[in-house]
Design brief:
2 domains, alpha/beta, Nucleotidyltransferase, domain 5
Length: 365
């Protein structure tokens, strides 16, 4: 009898994944149904899944911020009970966010053993807040992974806004993280925090400008020009006019060159981090996950910088992909299966008959 695990991401790009005996049979992001871009509560998806599948276990990608409050979790469990009433509470799990990114990429890659690099805006929250008694979260991680579920941590970096004498400086920093530095430039240029692809695109119009100071120092935001504003990066530059958003002829070389600067420096910093992991492990197969690796310009740079490395860049690198990672994590943990099941397609959404497709097209003819 088949065994189905429901993986859920509760954050921006909220999503669900249904895994049947190790194979993804359904994956979708909530905004496809709600029509609210980057929707963070997959309510419509959960209702849809409950009507389509008999679920045996539920796994949640690590929660952060208000998602981890007791009242929110209680309401969440009540929702699960009403939709999936046969699942006992001990069949509902919350697992670490960065590991969900990492394992999702690894199991999708087809590699039997790999170096895993995770870089995103912010990862696990409660793990360090509960133990260290301050606010902060994981930002960059390097792991060595192998089947069926062997995780060896070789590097972690955390950002905090409460650095003190008890905080281990080796891992924790009040400096703006690699990804949040890019995000700070993105916001300064007038884009939304979730639109770094626009800064990446703009960077192709810029060039090296020596009047713009370095944005990064040793892989972190330069504190001379970046504030840690409640765990988010904030540039200390004077505000700029955003008139060019409506009329591109109004843009100046400064905006173009700033985008070029953050693109060049961030991908260099990411490459340095990967080089550190390669030198330490000697591994030639590298999985990359977390929101930063949606940056295809940086990914192209990395393949050129490391021609002898076999890269796997997770296509669903943003938080939505953790729904897949968390479901596969539970399956390999439960079964200890060593079967390698590489990702072969991204067409995981609803399936339609030819008749349904034709009827749908006729609505717009």
């Amino acid at each position: 009898m088949s065994y189905k695990i429901l993986g859920i991401n509760l954050s921006h790009n909220s999503s669900v994944c249904v895994l049947e005996d190790g194979e993804v049979i359904f994956y979708l992001e909530e905004d496809r149904l709600s029509r609210k871009k980057y929707d963070d509560i997959p309510l419509e998806l959960l209702i849809k899944v409950s009507s389509l599948f008999k679920i045996d276990e539920i796994a949640l990608s690590g929660l952060s911020g208000f998602y981890n409050k007791e009242y929110y979790l209680k309401s969440l469990y009540s929702l699960f009970k009403s939709l999936f009433f046969k699942i006992p509470i001990n069949k509902i799990y919350i697992k670490k966010h960065h590991n969900a990114h990492s394992l999702g990429a690894f199991y999708n890659s087809g590699f039997s053993k790999a170096l895993s690099i995770i870089i995103d805006g912010g990862g696990d929250w409660d793990e360090i807040n509960n133990k260290k008694n301050f606010e902060g979260y994981e930002t960059e991680s390097i792991q060595v992974l192998k089947y069926p579920l062997n995780i060896k941590e070789i590097y972690k970096s955390y950002i905090t806004n409460n650095l003190n004498n008890q905080t281990p400086k080796k891992f924790f920093s009040s400096l703006v993280s690699l990804s949040k530095t890019y995000e700070a430039v993105n916001i300064y240029l007038g884009f939304k925090w979730y639109e770094p692809g626009k800064t990446m695109g703009l960077s192709s119009y810029g060039k090296l400008n020596n009047n713009i100071p370095n944005l990064y120092i040793n892989g972190k935001g330069n504190p001379k020009i970046l504030n840690n504003n409640n765990l988010n990066g904030e540039l200390k530059f004077f505000p700029i006019s955003k008139e060019w958003h409506r009329n591109f002829s109004k843009i100046t070389n400064f905006e173009k060159d700033l985008a070029y600067k953050v693109q060049q420096e961030s991908q260099q910093a990411v490459g340095d981090l990967i080089e550190k992991g390669i030198k330490k492990t000697g591994l030639k197969q590298v999985c990359c996950s977390g929101g930063y690796f949606l940056n295809c310009v940086a990914n192209y740079y990395l393949t050129k910088r490391f021609p002898d490395i076999d890269f796997y860049f997770e296509p669903i690198a943003h938080d939505g992909g953790t729904a897949v990672g968390i479901a596969k994590w539970i399956w390999y943990e439960r079964t200890q299966n060593k079967t390698i099941i590489p990702q072969k397609t991204l067409y995981y959404g609803p399936k339609y008959t030819k008749k349904q497709l034709i009827n749908g097209i006729k609505k717009y003819v």
